[in-house]
Amino acid sequence: APGLCAWRPPSSARGKPPSSAMRGVAEVKEPCSLPMLSVDMENKENGSVGVKNSMENGRPPDPADWAVMDVVNYFRTVGFEEQASAFQEQEIDGKSLLLMTRNDVLTGLQLKLGPALKIYEYHVKPLQTKHLKNNSS
Predict the structure, then answer these.
(1) Sign of torsion, CA 19 20 21 26?
(2) Dist CA 116 CA 120 (whole Å)
(3) Which pLDDT belongs to residue 47?
(4) Chain CA centroid to CA 1, Å
(5) How far apart, in whole angstroms, are the C-alpha atoms of residue 20 and residue 12?
(6) CA 56 to CA 52: how far, in whole Å?
(7) What is the pLDDT of residues 91-133, one digit of tens each?
(8) Which of 104, 100, 111, 106 is nearest to 64 (CA)?
(9) CB–CB of 52/43 below 8 Å?
């Protein structure tokens, strides 16, 4: 709700030393963050499993809807700057990413083995698992 966090000290507090005014601001910060938390909880309950309904970092929340550049940007954001271009060269979009096997990632993208293993284990596999869970109900 807009205006929840627009707290101003009452006019009586303005004349006091800054430390007491600051203390008042600190006390009010806590409740301001609470309404945001309850909004997140509501989203989780109606089946969106903690995923914001809007775009996440400019990408649709469901990897199946990602374009090639969404996949490339995803791997850039998680720290695989060099390897991200391989996904672009092979035109891997979200649907392709969700179909990739361990072997595809290790051999099909011509990546170094170390990064390829991490990409598969920590990113491709979890994205596939999460996608299946979200779409199995």
Answers:
(1) positive
(2) 6
(3) 44
(4) 23
(5) 12
(6) 7
(7) 999 999 999 999 999 999 999 999 999 999 999 999 999 999 9
(8) 100
(9) yes
Tokens 């672009």 — which residue?
A: 88
Model pTM score: 0.60
The two structure tokens encoding residue 40: 């997140």
Straight-line distance from the first to the last Cα atom of the chain, in angstroms, rounded to the nearest whole number: 32
For residue 85, the Cα-to-chain-centroid distance in whole angstroms is 21
Report which residue type is found at 10.
P
Contact call for residues 109 and 71 (beta carbons, < 8 A):
no
Helix (H, G, I), strand (E, B) or coil at 59: strand
Give phi and psi for 59, each to the nearest 5.
-110, 145
To 10 degrees, what angle do helices 68-77 and 81-89 make? 170
CA distance 49 to 129: 13
Q: Hey, which residues does 56 pair with through a beta bridge?
A: 59
Is the pLDDT reported for residue 81 higher than 50? yes
Average pLDDT over residues 8-35: 50
Judged by DSSP in three states, 56 sits in: strand
Quote the radius of gyration of the chain (alpha carbons, Å).
Answer: 22
